[in-house]
Amino acid sequence: MQNVLNALRALEEVAVRQPIGVADLARAMQLPKSSVQRTLVTLREAGWIRPTGSVPTRWVVTTKALHVGRHATDELGLRDIALPVMEELRRRTDETIHLAVREGGNVVLVERLETSQPVRIILPLGQNLIMHASANGKAVLAADPPEAAERYMAHGLRDFTDTTITDPVRLRAELAVTRERGWATNSGEWRPDVSAVAAAVIGEGGLPVASISVNVPTSRMSDEAGPVYGALVSEAAKRISTALGRAHEESTGR
Amino acid sequence: MQNVLNALRALEEVAVRQPIGVADLARAMQLPKSSVQRTLVTLREAGWIRPTGSVPTRWVVTTKALHVGRHATDELGLRDIALPVMEELRRRTDETIHLAVREGGNVVLVERLETSQPVRIILPLGQNLIMHASANGKAVLAADPPEAAERYMAHGLRDFTDTTITDPVRLRAELAVTRERGWATNSGEWRPDVSAVAAAVIGEGGLPVASISVNVPTSRMSDEAGPVYGALVSEAAKRISTALGRAHEESTGR
DNA sequence: AGGGTTGTGCCGTGAAGCGGCACGCTGTAT
DNA sequence: ATACAGCGTGCCGCTTCACGGCACAACCCT
């Protein structure tokens, strides 16, 4: 079903490059113009993209993808279970709380509650978090079997800021510390002004399925606040993990 | 491209019914089992769905859709323009702020900032808001040309609570009031405990392209608060509208 | 032990997607 | 004023590749 693959690729390409026209898109995809045009018409018929109405015609994605995407965490009722815990966590910290799920080799932001304090940065839902340069990523990596971490490191560790951990030896040590104390940190390792602490949510297979984090502007992240938030986020993750196990037992029959 | 349409339909069906198996899905879609299976394998190859790993195989959607969906408001940089204004609005009200965009005959929630107060409503992003039973919907409807409102009403006005406006005559009057004062209201007309005030964001064509709202539990929505929030949300929407116009002028050359 | 249902894979046939091509249009450079 | 290059759109014959009936092994309840 090559044309389905092409159509989905076209959809992604439109999302990234929108607003875009047929010719540009055909060039970007290295496909004949007429084929791309037919694909665009089909995607519109399905309601996933729409022309802006301008001339020449430019295409943009609709919110159809959002409708589908919001079910991404439904598998075990993760969102329903996590939200109340996240709310309490925010009440206690008054900082931005993130929920991210594991997805193959990545960690993706799926839910978010913000601090009421003046905020620096708002990450969009669907954002890919870097495994070795985010608290959520490191929490998941630490909870994974060591082979998984090694496999990830084999691809190299890109650096984003001057505090990013790019040395595999240092990352291994950091993961050991994380395992020991039960929560991961991020001190401006992805973007200078974003710091965080996180803890992994463990699924019934014993593997990490998600992670929650408390995100704080680096300027507000004091030496005292870290351990306090760490203890809170670690306890919250544990509560979600056990609730998840209970929900799973019920749904699979006792 | 019938198979593309089927594949996208399958994707939506999986999202709604997940976790689901081949046979169930084939029944739901009224399609041969083998066709559906082939489609599922293709969708997995493209990274939009994945098997849970259990036996028998069950399919769930990945976060791919979220990645695509987060671009849905990129068209004019709406999100970037609206977020700072929404933040200030939340700071002033300490209530939940919603940003919704127009989409054909619907209004869809695309961004959200929550109150820090304990009692609150959390709607998932991608939620479809009812035109005649939400503040955002009524704000858009009031800013539309009268024909559009009439066309919408022609389909009938479903009721959700005992305060839902189901009488076209009353709705017309309500829209007139909304136009007059510059902001729309919702007093538990969709869900009893949800009230809100909203104002439409006007695009460069003079038509409403989006709407922002202040959402308050009905219990907290006093007679005094309404007009105060109304004035704030109305001013915020105006600021977004003019900023949007400016951004559009620049991008289309002077 | 058995009937039903599951997920998976094969394969011949025919429909439908592919892509080269041409058209009308717009905006720019000559 | 004219030529030209780029755009979006539509046609149409060839060939491919998706369709769906069918078979099979594994699994679950009786």
Topology:
Two copies of one chain form a homodimer.
Chain A: H1 2-17, H2 22-29, H3 33-45, E1 49-51, E2 59-61, H4 64-69, H5 78-93, E3 96-103, E4 106-113, E5 128-129, H6 135-143, H7 146-153, H8 168-181, E6 184-187, E7 194-202, E8 208-217, H9 225-251
Antiparallel strand pairs in A: 1-2, 3-4, 3-8, 4-5, 6-7, 7-8
Helix pairs in contact in A: 1-3, 2-3, 5-9, 6-8
The first copy, chain A, binds a DNA duplex (30 and 30 nucleotides) through residues 1-3, 21-23, 31-35, 37-38, 55-57.
GO molecular function, one term (chains A, B): DNA-binding transcription factor activity
InterPro entries (chains A, B): GAF-like_dom_sf, HTH_MetabolicPath_Reg, Tscrpt_reg_IclR_C, Tscrpt_reg_IclR_N, WH-like_DNA-bd_sf, WH_DNA-bd_sf
Keywords (chains A, B): DNA-binding, Transcription, Transcription regulation
What's a concise summary of this model?
Chain A has 254 residues and is α+β, with helices and mostly antiparallel strands.
CATH H-level superfamily of the largest domain in chain A:
GAF domain
Helices and strands of chain A, in N-to-C order?
HHHEEHHEEEHHHEEEH
In CATH, the architecture of the largest domain in chain A is: 2-Layer Sandwich
CATH class designation of the largest domain in chain A = Alpha Beta
In spatial order, strands of the major sheet of chain A run: 5-4-3-8-7-6
Principal-axes shape call of chain A: elongated
